Amino acid sequence: MAVALPSLTALLAVLMLAALVGVTQLRLEESARSAARSLARGDSVASAVSAAHQIAGSGVAVTITEAGGYVRAEVSVRISGPLSGLVNWPLTAVAVAKAEQGPLEGPAP
């Protein structure tokens, strides 16, 4: 029992971290898609960034670029919390959409 309980606790902590990483990645992907769709419809850059922050949270970094009639939204964040040192890389999601209108309005953050 003295060996099994700490091992079980460590395994549970790693599984919880894996779940956190998975859910965070899904939220990043959805927020990048939302921002790209918003930009493709012709919404402002500020509106697209706001949409990304609503889904993924305010701690994410959002990068918007435009080239060749396509808009690209990249959303990234570093995991924080217990055992976050095991995931020492940023989680990133990218979405690209064809712009329906002309160039973007407003400065890119």
UniProtKB/TrEMBL annotation:
InterPro entries cross-referenced by the UniProt entry: Rv3655c/TadE (IPR049790)
Lineage of the species this protein comes from: Bacteria, Bacillati, Actinomycetota, Actinomycetes, Micrococcales
Lineage: superkingdom: Bacteria
Protein name: Pilus assembly protein TadE
